[in-house]
Every structure is written in C-alpha cells, then in structure tokens.
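Can anyone check this?
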Amino acid sequence: MKTLVDREGLIFSPPQLGCVLYLPGLPGGAGKIYDRSLCGNRGTITGATWIQLPSGVWCLSFDGQDDFVDCGVTTALNFTSEDFTVKLWVCRDTSGDAGLITRGQYKVDGWMLATQNQNKLDFRTFQSNEQQIQVGSTMLSSGTWYHVVASRAGSSATLYLNGKDDTGTPVSLTDPTGNTNRTLRLASQTGGPSSPDWPLAGDLALVAIYNRAWTALDVQNNFNQEKHLFGVW
C-alpha cells in the first residue's frame, strides 16, 4: 500500500525540459509556496489556505475576495523568444472573471491566463494600454477540476482543456518578451489604478511555466500523467 510520502514522490517528479517555474504545492510553512524548478522562484501566500486532495496533491484555495500568491519579479521569465507555455489545474467555486496567473500589469504590459464572464478560458497579452485576447471554446463548469494549458508560439497561442485543443477563433497577440522584470501573481491580476483584480474563488494546483511552446503531444502526455490525481478521466 502506498503511503502519502510514496505518492508525493510520484507526484513531484522532475519537471520537463525548459521548466522555469513549478509549484507543486507541498506546504513549506511560513505562508510560502516553493518552486521545484531549478530557478527557485518561491511565492508568498496572502489569505489563501492549503487543502489536500485524496490523491495526496496539495492545492491552494482562494476566497474570491482578496487572496493571491505573489511570486515577485521572476527574471527566469524574461524570455528571449515569444514561445512559452503556462500550465495549471483549476477548480472554480463560482463562474465569471478570474485571473489564474498573470505577469505584468493589466492593459499596460505582460500577459494573463484567465477565465472570463462567458466562463471560457482566455489568454491575453497587454501592451501600451491595449490588449489582445485568445478565447477558448468550452464553457467551464464550477466545482470541476480542469487541466489548463496556454502554449504560445510566435504571435499565436493555443489553448488546451483536459488535453484537447480548445482554441477559438485565432488571434494575433503582441510580443510580451520585452516587458522584463515584472511581477508574477496567482489567482488574480496585478491590476492598475482603474482595473479590477479579478480574484479567483476556487483552487489552483501544479502551476508551471516553460520557456518553450508545448506541442499537442506534450500537453496530452502531461494530462495523462496527472489526470488521476484530480479524478479526471
């Protein structure tokens, strides 16, 4: 019979090639979440609480009001190429706008992976008070775990939901790589003087960022490796 320690050894295997942020969520105390990539980007937790799934996975639960995780200025995310990948698991308590992971400032610079009021995924880039938004196709349900990936290659991003392409009408996105030394935040956007924070009411787990674009096979392999941890088949 596998113990919890045994299961954690299976869950927290070394991340794939090109990983620059990996937050598997094993509590480390003192309100921190620790990066298990080679880049050492830990996050400071504000308000959010730890929960553990039956599989042994630790998740952060956010109240939809003022909870978030601040990962600070992560220079490992100063990519020299437009190609990168953002991956996470999310279970929302309520529908509507929610920032899942953001780097930079809303409509000023950077990028964000979120859900919007149509309850679909969206990946957006910001530059000079403008934004371009790649929207997903599927309506997400509350109380359900989803494997979410945004894989950006050049000026386009492909959205994946539970291992399958969920990209809507293709959109040309601005290049966010010139916006260096910006704050990374989980469960909200970093905001601005006149913009909402888009707080998440729900849970996040196994957040990761890669400095390369994942292929459809990469996404499917990762989903297959992790889906049993969240009761998704």
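Reply from J.R.: I decoded it. The chain has one domain: 4-230.
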